[in-house]
Amino acid sequence: MAEKSAGQRRRTRSDWAAAALRALAEGGVAAVAVEPVAASLGATKGSVYWHFPNREALLTAALELWETEHTEAVIELLEPIAEPLAKLRTLFSAVLEDTDNRVLLALLASAEDPVVAPVLGRVTERRIGYLATLFGELGWTPTQSRRRAVLAYAAYVGQAQLMRSSPKMLPANKVGRRAYLDDALHALGVPPASKG
Amino acid sequence: MAEKSAGQRRRTRSDWAAAALRALAEGGVAAVAVEPVAASLGATKGSVYWHFPNREALLTAALELWETEHTEAVIELLEPIAEPLAKLRTLFSAVLEDTDNRVLLALLASAEDPVVAPVLGRVTERRIGYLATLFGELGWTPTQSRRRAVLAYAAYVGQAQLMRSSPKMLPANKVGRRAYLDDALHALGVPPASKG
DNA sequence: ACACCTCCGTACGGTCCCGTATGGAACTGA
DNA sequence: TCAGTTCCATACGGGACCGTACGGAGGTGT
């Protein structure tokens, strides 16, 4: 067995960005600290400070990585789906199932951070804009679509928070989640999917 | 002019709890640190450590203060209103106007913190429960009321997040907020208020 | 084999915070 | 007024992290 994370000889900038993103997901922005991240790769600060001028640059690299690979992931997930209605359904069900929100929650927790703020702003804007186009394809006026999109994304974000802080408030089993999802989509003006 | 925050001679435990809560609102859980809070009252650590055994106790005191005075505030705000519909409207409009969410956002940002978690859990549970009763009074079944309450609170929380991270996404003027609020309430199954 | 550049470990000083120890000021009551 | 209690400032040691300095090991080309 070749050594993987430990004992590795040389690391690239991408390795550090990935490690920083991992730390971000697990411990929040504060966990993206030079020494702990270095230790997570079995290295020391000397290595980090060769690839990055300072801690902020390391954090920025992690955020860039997340922003790009995450938008790609969403596109790849929804692109093959034709119906905007099915897209919305898939999108919303992801919140109830997925655990990917870790990074998003970490960023929301540090929304004031000057390094985080612009990234969070761009992602939020992009997502709401995308939701608005979906609602537009469903026949809503631009103004209505916009409002629905903001409301839907607010519910999305709040949902992610509740999953972490008060999971007991949410439906536990699959049937309950399905019913909750149907109800939420219906409330937002999206009729339930025809069974089949 | 009598000295107020500076030059004060003796502080009580309540003074420290209030100062800690202030720090929590302004800088998050991390800002509830012994030395900075002491400095905010023109004192030193020595005083803090006389009233509290450690930092955690100071944070707990701040959270207790918030939990009690905040639930009182909500009760005082909604108690005089008779109609459950008007209560909901008042409740939701508070998010779009108020800036009180600072503490809530700080707590959500540190939801994993073992000191924060139980407080956040209790408050969340209480609020959703209260929302559910309101929806119940509007004629929804218990199951539907529960789902609507969770959805409404998720939207509430997400809304608070958006106000901080992406205020540009939300309606800026009063008219826009009113329209957005109407739309949101309507989506949740609450008909718009009759004008007058 | 040699110099060279890339990458990294170690050591150091600095900041901010926690928590403890201790002496002394400020108030209290008799 | 004076002893006792309450409250607080100062000083100290420890830990986590940042950033810098520097030397040395690892690869690379010739």
TrEMBL record, chains A, B:
<dbReference type="GO" id="GO:0003700">
    <property type="term" value="F:DNA-binding transcription factor activity"/>
</dbReference>
<dbReference type="InterPro" id="IPR050109">
    <property type="entry name" value="HTH-type_TetR-like_transc_reg"/>
</dbReference>
<protein>
    <submittedName>
        <fullName>TetR family transcriptional regulator</fullName>
    </submittedName>
</protein>
<keyword id="KW-0238">DNA-binding</keyword>
<dbReference type="Pfam" id="PF00440">
    <property type="entry name" value="TetR_N"/>
</dbReference>
<feature type="domain" description="HTH tetR-type">
    <location>
        <begin position="10"/>
        <end position="70"/>
    </location>
</feature>
<dbReference type="GO" id="GO:0000976">
    <property type="term" value="F:transcription cis-regulatory region binding"/>
</dbReference>
<dbReference type="InterPro" id="IPR001647">
    <property type="entry name" value="HTH_TetR"/>
</dbReference>
<feature type="DNA-binding region" description="H-T-H motif">
    <location>
        <begin position="33"/>
        <end position="52"/>
    </location>
</feature>
<dbReference type="InterPro" id="IPR009057">
    <property type="entry name" value="Homeodomain-like_sf"/>
</dbReference>
